[in-house]
Amino acid sequence: MDGRATSDRRSKLEQDRRKWDFWSARERFWRVYERDTRELRGDAVARLDLEPGDTVLDVGCGPGTNFELLREAIGADGRVIGVDLSPGMVERATERIETHGWENVEAVRADATALSLGDERFDGALATTAVSSTPDVPATVENVHDVLEPGARFAVYEIRLVPSGPGRLLNPLIRRFYRAFGNWNDEHNVLAALERSFDDTAVVERVALGTNYVAVATRSDGRSTTE
Question: Quick check: is 224 in a domain?
């Protein structure tokens, strides 16, 4: 990466951090978000097929919106690690952890486009309206792929423009809304990035004219198909 590209990336990351720090303090917004998206987020968690004792990664965890759902899936003996670029979001997530007394949940400040978690490997990963908010969607997806155990799944609840039909007339308005409130990156396609990095990707749920969807990507288990 040349100097200009590095500078542009740093500038974009700083812009993202400022925006999410702003939204981290909007408690009313997050209450509405949690209520209105619970069903889809719950479906995404269920698609991970987590078991008690598993370790799961929450990408772009925000204020810890998914922690309760994930903890219910992995039990007290499992681990939830949430990562977010925004210090404000990590602070809100940590407050939620402390309020509930969750000893097996952790919130870490980290850049999903350059994820570094040492030798940590995960039995599943979740991202809810988060991947499309990163400045480099392909890098984010590839990084998640690399920290998953063979055979593990990455479930995303994501947003996009109306993919087909007369509803596409609404796309200019939808695009402006996404950019204003979701820091949406329309330069990269989340589904295309998943299909490039993972061995199997499927959209399993669509609502609101297809603008909201749940997709599940599975990492290869490493076994030959001829076995």
Answer: no
Domain assignment present for 205: yes
User: What is the residue range of 186's domain?
Assistant: 3-218
Asked if residue 225 is part of any domain, the answer here is: no
- Number of structural domains (the chain) is 1
Give the pair of three-digit tokens for residue 122. Answer: 């995960």
- Residue 182 inside a domain? The answer is yes
Residues 191-220 have pLDDT tens digits of: 999 999 999 999 999 999 999 999 999 998
pTM, full prediction? 0.88
Phi, then psi, of 206 in degrees rounded to 5: -140, 135
Q: What CATH number should be reported for the domain holding residue 93?
A: 3.40.50.150
Q: What is the pLDDT of residues 78-107, one digit of tens each?
A: 999 999 988 999 999 999 999 999 999 999
Distance CA 23, CA 220 (A): 36
Predicted confidence (pLDDT) per residue in 20-47, tens digit? 565 566 778 778 888 888 999 999 999 9
